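hey so i finally got around to running the thing on that chain from the lab meeting. sorry it took forever, my laptop kept dying and i had to restart like 3 times. anyway pasting the input first so we r on the same page abt which one it is
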Amino acid sequence: DKGETWQALHDVTGLEGIHLKSLIGFSDNEKLLFAANARQLFKSTDGGFSWKPDDLVATYWHKGTVRVRAANGKYVTKAQNTEHKFRPYEINDLLTEGTGRTTYIFAATDRGLLRSKDSGIHWALVDTGSVSGVLNIYASAKDDGRIVVENGYRLFLTENFGETWKPLSWPREGILLNDLAVPPVGSGSPFLAATSQGLYSSVDGGKDWAVVNNGLPYSTVDSVIYSANQGFTAYAVTFGQLYQSKDAGSSWTAVPSSYSSLRIRRLWQPARLPDRLFAVTNDIGILFRNQAIIR
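ok and heres what got predicted. didnt touch it at all, straight out
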């Protein structure tokens, strides 16, 4: 019912004593779920009632050369791709993105970014340009293939579901990235970075960043997202307080709440529920409100 009511899953098997870091589902298959802690991927095919460990084995191809003897007896050098398989040691984040025909699963791991095109049956290492592991995955408010990954000190952007990538600059040296609002393709909105030292905006596609302090405190910003159906509307959270911007992050106003001690930790808006804003709180669970109410 679009998040209006929730119920506990009783008698869940396979996750006893497991502290999960990520949980993802599929819009075209409500029974299929994946979850992960730091070391293991889990899979459920019955809507989350039972889980089994899923062996995350990824493939990558090493481009090399080999010398072979030609028909004339001379040796020539030819290109040769060698297949290698590996298992990551750490799983940091999971994401699903779809085109309508194909749903991709992305896994951020200590060995890099992994991608599956067949519901997790096969995985391949994605060449993002990062020479280290991937910590977090950020996606556009719409399922349009625009995804950013970060490895702790660099950002990388794809606009075609991971086929090609380009590097983005880090908002500011020495700061921690808490969240990243990726603008939808064609929106003209800037990237917005929630950091340990305020909110940063990049109007040139991630090349240069500038701090935003018009209505927003210059302090830790925990979460920031764009609206899925209102391209210039964005939301941010600092000190548990929700803020709204109607001009793509240039200026912000606090959103009143009926809760006297509301402490929002994370914002979330599914692409398929573009008018509903969810907030994960520290003390009173998950809240939601319709965007139309926030004026």
